[in-house]
């Protein structure tokens, strides 16, 4: 089977021009088939505030009312996605920018209200059109996917970018040996979130549970690891969580392990 590297890059990297450019340089240099899933949560926060709207995150996911959906559609599907594509084109990577609605790539269902949270226009993916992505990759293009999906009835939905990367990787595992890399603004999973020298080299689900219980792992790292372990259990060959400039360094960052 052919290899494919799926990279997810988060808003912490993209909100800063220098880190964004450093990441894109490293991504452009990756050899072989590749695909990029991007977030942009922190940029969405900035634009929401500029427009007088209040960001509302619960357990790492954004409560998305109608106004917020309009802003995230513009920020993720427009500004961030197209800037990434243009930057990659300048590096001779033939990127093609897509949301989950384009080519019917990802269909999702509106997340039901739970624990008293009305999520609004948040989508949980139920179907990924892996064949279309496979065709694009096969043509030598590099899909760049924004964290927006659709319900098949005309409504766009906001979907967590870590979840997008996971479902895309799992769906493409039918066609490729997939390596999934979460690139972000820390060196990896850390025992001390303020110390980039405290990288945990390998983590399994028991280790994750322990670090979560002790409070060493918190906030955005919880949903990231939850979706990453789901992908590992569904047959993704290798999953790494690593600093944005080190994606091609096999030894850098944290590698997820199946329970022994
Ligand atoms: N143990 C940990 N190791 C590294 N980062 C952690 C840890 N616990 C919490 N975090 C936080 O998780 C953040 C990454 O999650 P998130 O902001 O959702 O990422 P992204 O930028 O990829 O969207 C880090 O910036 C860090 O503040
Ligand atoms: C439903 C939901 O939470 N959607 C996310 C999508 C963007 C994202 O995940 O961006 P990062 O990777 O930069 O965090 C949000 O709007 O924040």
From TrEMBL:
Return the protein name: Acetylglutamate kinase
Q: Which organism is it from?
A: Imperialibacter roseus
> What is the enzyme's class at the highest EC level?
transferase
Pathway given for this chain reads: Amino-acid biosynthesis; L-arginine biosynthesis; N(2)-acetyl-L-ornithine from L-glutamate: step 2/4
**Might you give the EC number(s) for this enzyme?**
2.7.2.8
Superkingdom of this entry's organism? Bacteria
- Stretches of the chain forming a coiled coil according to its record: none
> What's in the keyword line of the UniProt record?
Amino-acid biosynthesis, Arginine biosynthesis, ATP-binding, Cytoplasm, Kinase, Nucleotide-binding, Transferase
Q: Where does the record place the Aspartate/glutamate/uridylate kinase domain? A: 4-242
């Amino acid at each position: 089977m052919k290899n494919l590297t799926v990279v997810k890059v988060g808003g912490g990297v993209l909100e800063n021009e220098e880190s964004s450019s450093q990441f894109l340089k490293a991504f452009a240099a990756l050899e072989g088939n590749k695909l990029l899933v991007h977030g942009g949560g922190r940029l969405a926060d900035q634009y929401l505030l500029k427009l007088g709207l209040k960001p509302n995150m619960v357990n790492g996911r954004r409560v998305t009312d109608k106004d917020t959906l309009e802003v995230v559609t513009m920020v993720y599907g427009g500004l961030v996605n197209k800037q990434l594509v243009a930057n990659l084109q300048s590096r001779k990577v033939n990127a093609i920018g897509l949301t989950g609605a384009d080519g019917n790539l990802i269909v999702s269902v509106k997340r039901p209200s739970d624990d008293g949270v009305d999520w609004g226009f948040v989508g949980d993916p139920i179907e990924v059109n892996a064949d279309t992505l496979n065709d694009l990759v096969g043509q030598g293009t590099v899909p760049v996917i924004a964290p927006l999906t659709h319900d098949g009835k005309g409504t766009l939905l906001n979907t967590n970018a870590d979840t997008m990367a996971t479902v895309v990787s799992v769906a493409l595992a039918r066609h490729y040996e997939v390596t999934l890399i979460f690139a972000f603004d820390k060196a990896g999973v850390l025992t001390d979130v303020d110390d980039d020298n405290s990288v945990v080299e390998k983590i399994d689900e028991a280790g994750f549970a322990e670090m979560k219980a002790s409070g060493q792992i918190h906030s955005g790292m919880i949903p990231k690891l939850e979706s990453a372990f789901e992908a590992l259990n569904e047959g993704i060959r290798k999953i790494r969580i690593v600093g944005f400039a080190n994606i091609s360094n096999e030894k850098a960052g944290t590698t997820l392990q199946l329970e022994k």
